[in-house]
Automatic annotation (TrEMBL):
Residues 91-158 are annotated as: Disordered. This is Uncharacterized protein. Residues 37-86 form a coiled coil. Residues 91-128 have a biased composition (Basic residues). Keywords: Coiled coil.
């Protein structure tokens, strides 16, 4: 019986020791878990700051690059506009010269057509029976002798 009582005491002590060890272990794990969570949050904030700084630097670089490109484009556009103005002036001068030449060729063509239309057309008499009705002849289409006018395209108006 004495051994039995001692055995029960030892069992109680072991149970108490195990339960206290379990509690201590849970406390440590909870503390460590909270500590780890806090460490992760701090590290997360630090990394976000670093990323934000680098992103801001890259955005500034990109804006600077875009501004430089816009300046170059505006310079090129102004140069192109200058060349367009010069070419428009040259085109207007050549268009004026071409219209005077066209007018002269039109007058020459009109005189030739007028001369051709004054000639009389000779019709042959048919030797068919008297009952047949003579056919009416259709006027022939006039052919322009000078086709240089058609080959030139008219100047575009803007």
């Amino acid at each position: 019986m004495v051994k039995n009582d001692e055995l029960k005491k030892v069992q109680k002590q072991v149970k108490n020791f195990v339960s206290t060890a379990e509690k201590d272990f849970k406390k440590l794990v909870d503390k460590d878990l909270h500590g780890l969570v806090n460490k992760f949050e701090k590290e997360k904030k630090r990394i976000e700051k670093v990323v934000d700084k680098t992103v801001q630097k890259e955005v500034k670089k990109a804006k600077k690059f875009v501004d430089e490109q816009m300046k170059e484009l505006s310079k090129l556009q102004s140069q192109v506009e200058k060349y367009v103005k010069v070419s428009k002036k040259a085109a207007k001068k050549t268009a004026k010269k071409a219209t005077t030449v066209k007018k002269a060729t039109k007058k020459k063509a009109a005189k030739k057509v007028a001369k051709k239309s004054t000639k009389k057309k000779v019709t042959k008499k048919t030797t068919k029976k008297a009952t047949a009705v003579p056919k009416k002849t259709q006027p022939k289409k006039r052919v322009l002798a000078n086709k240089t006018q058609a080959s030139k395209a008219p100047a575009k108006k803007k």
